[in-house]
């Protein structure tokens, strides 16, 4: 059963794509029409926000659920949408890209501490992450 606020399915429950006893009912790429590349480049940390514009063409149930998730919060990352829908990130990127092309959602580049962009060799950020993990363990 979907939650009323977001339209997402709680973990451990049957969904249109996953049945607890039978396993995956539908191949994930069916949701994206077999496409594996989004029309718009999205990062896993891209912040997605609903614009309030309704697509003029009918879209699938997965598109509707993704749109509800984007509308249910100030901003939600691509990774969060993928986790809530329990679909691979690349499939969700295709769905969100479709919604962007119809003007239903917009994306913002990820925000990083200090206002800059993340570089894999950013020692200070990587050290902060490592220190935080050590505190939790």
Anisotropy-based shape: elongated
Radius of gyration of CA atoms, rounded to a whole number: 17 Å
The major sheet is characterized as: 3 strands, antiparallel
Helix/strand order: EEEHEHHEH
Q: Strand order, biggest sheet?
A: 4-3-5
Number of helices: 4
Distance between the termini: 35 Å
Oligomer: single chain
Uncertain residue segments: none
In total, the number of strands is: 5
Q: Could you report the average pLDDT, rounded to the nearest whole number?
A: 76
How does the helix and strand content classify structurally?
alpha+beta
Strand content: 5-15%
What is the share of helical residues?
25-40%
Q: Can you describe what's shown?
A:
With 137 residues, the protein is an alpha+beta fold. The chain has 4 helices and 5 strands. A 3-stranded antiparallel beta sheet has the order 4-3-5. Strands 1-2 form a two-stranded antiparallel ribbon. A hairpin with a 3-residue loop joins strand 1 (18-19) and strand 2. The mean pLDDT is 76.
Descriptive labels:
about 140 residues; alpha+beta; about 10% strand; two-stranded antiparallel ribbon
Quick overview of this protein structure:
The protein has 137 residues and is of the alpha+beta class.
Helices and strands in order, then pairings?
Blueprint: E1 18-19, E2 23-24, E3 47-50, H1 61-71, E4 76-77, H2 78-85, H3 89-101, E5 105-108, H4 123-136
Helix pairs in contact: 1-3, 2-3
């Amino acid at each position: 059963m979907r939650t009323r606020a977001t339209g997402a399915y709680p973990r451990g429950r049957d969904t249109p794509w996953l049945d607890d006893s039978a396993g995956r009912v539908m191949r994930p790429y069916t949701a994206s029409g077999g496409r594996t590349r989004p029309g718009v480049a999205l990062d896993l940390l891209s912040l997605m926000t609903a614009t309030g514009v309704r697509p003029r063409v009918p879209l699938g149930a997965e598109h509707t659920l993704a749109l509800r998730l984007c509308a249910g919060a100030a901003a939600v990352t691509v990774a969060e949408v993928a986790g809530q829908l329990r679909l691979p990130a690349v499939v969700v990127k295709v769905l969100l890209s479709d919604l962007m092309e119809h003007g239903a959602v917009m994306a913002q580049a990820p925000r990083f501490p200090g206002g800059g962009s993340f570089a894999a060799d950013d020692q200070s950020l990587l050290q902060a992450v490592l220190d935080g993990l050590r505190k939790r363990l």
